[in-house]
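User: Design a sequence. Structure:
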């Protein structure tokens, strides 16, 4: 295999011990592209060594996905396997941990009929609700890691041959996930402590608004009443401390869905379910997007915005310094897990209901405090080394948070 097997094994071990933090006696539900089988097999070994009850892998295959677009009846495009997502919901209610391996072709569906793509996305979003709700509520410990997929690697490095491209992507994933170090598990402990320092500072400051300023961007983002900043390791409702994303460089919270105003320009292309959306520029008024354009993929973007009532409002705001390891690779990954950890970002749609100081709010309380609800959650990047961010308190006091894309505060 062209990929370094020792590092692949370290990634699998990190995913189980630090990512999911799988506990003895827990079941594990795993999803992955079929290409990632070598990694999934290593994950299963580490899971059972940690005392997993049952590891259940579910694989997807790009050719089977495309055969639907090429040969299925028209009715197929409004269908989704609800039974599967209901089953996932049931599994999570029974304390099953969740691990997702990603790495699919980011442009798999780019040549397909956008109308069919959006119908599939919509049907899947609706059916996926039982699983999505439990994940966004953080009922159970979960984690996402990446496999260096061949099509993904080819897109990132079009000038290299297939083997070199995959090797280069694998090494970028290992570096960003900190598995190129002697002891990745220890490295993640240190990294988590650093992220904790920033989220604690932001929670102490208790800003009412963030103000983003830079080329094509002048945006005020109100934060939800009683919001809490989080980042790195955090405790799921089942009491298990896990790292949902590997890599992860962000601290994030829930914005107020009625208090976002101004204009904002994306700083990286957005790869959304097989389509690429470039140079997004939107205008917010009273929390809602009232104007939206993109130089490429605008149709897909507009369809996304019309998914439901909450799709035009924000569900997340996240801070990532421009000097983070992923940003420093200078690579565009065409993959949200990486690109969102290279730059400050906002997400359209569903909020993380765990990002509140009071962890036992009802749905109605979350929405009256400004938490958005939607069947979508789509991150897109608005940070760069040209962005300044200020925090504005309720009394109007202004504190610099980022200058030229880096943290503006120093701790001793
Ligand atoms: Zn995020
Ligand atoms: Zn997000």
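Assistant: Done.
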């Amino acid at each position: 295999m062209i990929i370094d097997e020792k590092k692949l094994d370290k990634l699998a071990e990190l995913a189980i011990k630090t990512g999911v933090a799988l506990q003895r006696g827990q079941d594990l539900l795993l999803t992955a592209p079929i290409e990632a089988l070598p990694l999934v097999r290593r994950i299963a070994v580490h899971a059972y060594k940690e005392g997993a009850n049952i590891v259940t892998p579910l694989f997807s295959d790009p050719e089977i996905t495309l055969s639907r677009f090429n040969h299925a009846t028209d009715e197929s495009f409004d269908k989704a396997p609800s039974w599967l997502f209901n089953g996932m919901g049931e599994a999570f209610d029974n304390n099953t941990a969740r691990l997702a391996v990603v790495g699919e072709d980011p442009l798999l569906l780019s040549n397909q009929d956008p109308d069919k793509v959006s119908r599939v996305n919509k049907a899947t979003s609706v059916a996926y609700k039982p699983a999505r709700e439990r994940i966004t509520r953080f009922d159970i410990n979960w984690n996402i890691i990446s496999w260096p997929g061949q099509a993904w690697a080819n897109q990132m490095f079009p000038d290299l041959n297939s083997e070199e491209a995959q090797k280069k992507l694998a090494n970028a994933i290992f570096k960003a996930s900190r598995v190129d170090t002697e002891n990745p598990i220890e490295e993640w402990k240190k990294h988590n402590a650093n992220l904790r320092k920033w989220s604690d500072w932001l929670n102490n400051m208790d800003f009412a608004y963030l103000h983003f300023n830079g080329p094509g961007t002048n945006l005020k983002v109100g934060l939800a009443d009683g919001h809490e900043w989080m980042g790195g390791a955090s405790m799921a409702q089942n009491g298990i401390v896990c790292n949902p994303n590997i890599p992860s460089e962000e601290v994030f919270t829930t914005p107020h869905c009625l208090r976002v105003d101004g204009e904002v320009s994306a700083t990286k292309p957005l790869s959304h379910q097989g389509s690429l959306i470039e140079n997004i520029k939107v205008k917010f008024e009273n929390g809602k997007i009232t104007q939206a354009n993109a130089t490429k993929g605008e149709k897909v973007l507009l369809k996304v915005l019309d998914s439901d009532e909450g799709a035009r409002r924000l569900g997340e705001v996240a801070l990532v310094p421009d000097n983070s390891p992923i940003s420093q690779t200078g690579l565009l990954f065409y993959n949200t897990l990486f690109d969102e950890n290279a730059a400050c970002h906002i997400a359209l749609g569903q909020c993380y209901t765990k990002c509140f100081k009071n962890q036992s709010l009802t749905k109605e309380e979350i929405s009256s405090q400004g938490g958005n609800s939607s069947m979508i959650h789509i991150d897109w990047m608005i940070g760069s080394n040209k962005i300044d961010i200020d925090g504005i308190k309720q009394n109007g006091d202004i504190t610099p948070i980022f200058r030229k894309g880096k943290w503006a505060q120093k701790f001793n």
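The two ends are 46 Å apart (CA to CA). Residues 316, 347, 377, 379 surround zinc ion (ligand 2) (CB under 6 Å).
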